[in-house]
Give the backbone structure.
Amino acid sequence: MTNLAEPAFDALQEACAATGLDARGAEPIRLAENQIWRLPNGIIARIAPPGRLSSAAREISVARWLAACGLPVVKPVLIDQPVEYAGRVVTFWEEVPAHSHGSTGDVAAALKELHALRLPDFNIGRLDPFVRIPERLTAAQTLPDDDRQWLLTLYGELKAQWEAGLPPGLPTSPVHGDAWPGNVVRLGRGGWLLMDLERFSAGPPEWDLASTAVRTRTTGAVTPAEYDAFCGIYGHDVTVWAGYDVLAGARELRMATYAAQHAASDPRWQAEAQHRVDCLRGRVGPRPWHWTGIL
């Protein structure tokens, strides 16, 4: 199996050549499933694994649409993109000025504006909370077989509940899909900005809201006071909704399988991956569990 974290500089060079950009002096910022490279002249290249051409094209369209709607959002470079080379999919973006992770308040404010938008007149797809989870479980070779089977069973149960239909809730809207302070950043000059639109789709707004709720109730990354402020800014508390447990379960499963996938190629994350599974299986104690972020 190809290690997708290996530098994909050949794909970057070919993509730059096809679009008239200069790859000389390119520096890797992050080498993981999605690779991030910095090019000269304030351009960021994002290299996705094979099979992501349609999702990358949708991400470019969504970014342009959000900008036209007046939302602060990362901007794609004005060239014909995405570009595919040797299976890798490359997109090019304007580098975001000095920034840091946003606050939970920034996330709430961004989601309030985003969810108020009407769906665009092009297809942004439907939310799938379980995308790539089977592939992650296949890759999770550091977990014992019993744990992998338990996660697979949990996946099946949660997916069946999702497909059976959630209780009535907020109206369907555009959803970011991965709304946390790393993707709603605070600019040095002030204000927030949306990044990483790979999971953007149409779906229940509760999916975005559940991200912060899980970071409060499950991982302990958000304090109860911060969560109360989040709900005050957005105007809704997703945890009182009857469908919350299904979406929270899907979020927790995604986080556990993400860690397990990375642990298979990086021993640094094996203990954290196992810890997350142990938490879900009731071996650790009650929530919150204070999970460590996977870099």
Q: What stands out?
A: The two ends are 22 Å apart (CA to CA). Strands lie at 27-30, 35-39, 43-48, 83-85, 88-94, 99-101, 173-175, 184-187, 192-194, 201-203. The chain has nine helices and ten strands.
